[in-house]
Amino acid sequence: EVQLVESGGGLVQPGGSLKLSCAASGFTFSGSAMDWVRQASGKGLEWIGRIRSKANSYATAYAASLKGRFIISRDDSQNTAYLQMNSLKTEDTAVYYCTRTHSSVDYWGQGTLVTVSS
Amino acid sequence: QPVLTQSSSASASLGSSVKLTCTLSSGHSTYIIAWHQQQPGRAPRYLMSLESSGDYNKGSGGPDRFSGSSSGADRYLTISNLQSEDEADYYCETWDSDTRVFGGGTKLTVL
Question: Which of B43, B104, B105 sits opposite A111 (nearest CB)?
C-alpha cells in the first residue's frame, strides 16, 4: 500500500524558515517523481514544485511565483522528500501535501499545516 | 502554460447522475488531465487520468460509478447513482515538462 506521511508543519513567524518532510513507503521511491502541492484554507490546490528521480538527474521545477524561496530535495536512502521554505510570508499559510507523480499526481499524503503568523 | 477552467459549483439529486466539466485553454486541447476528489476535511484523492480520446485509467479503489469522457478541449467526469459521500470538491489537473496546474475546483452538492 502506498503511503506518504508529511511532517514538520507548525507555527512560524514571518521571515522565518521551515523544512517539511515526506516519508514514503509501499512503492519504489527512488524511481518516482515527487511533487509538493499546497492549499490555503477554503481555497483550491496550488502546485509548488517537483523533483524527478536519479535517472532524470533529480531535476527540479517550481511554480514561478515561489521560485527562489522554496527548495525541494530528496534522500532516496531514507525514502524521504523534503520541502525547504524560506522567507515565509503570511500568505504561505496552508496545508502542504506531498504527492507521488507518474505523469499525473496519483497518490497524496494526508497533509501538514503550516501557519505563518507573528 | 495550460490553464484549466471549472465551474465553481454543481448540484444533483441522490441517485441521479452528474457530469462535471474541465476545459483546457486554447492550444492545449490534446492534453491529458487527471481528476481528483476532495471530501470535506480530507486530503485529495486521485480518481483517474483522462486522454483527449476519451480513454481513461482509474486509480485503485475508485468506485465504478465514476467515468470519464472527452470532447475537444473539454474533459468530463460523470458520477452515476450519486451517493451522499460523493459530496466533495473535484479538481482537474494537467501538466507539461516543467509545470503542473490545477483547475479551480467544482464543489458538488448532493441534494
Answer: B43
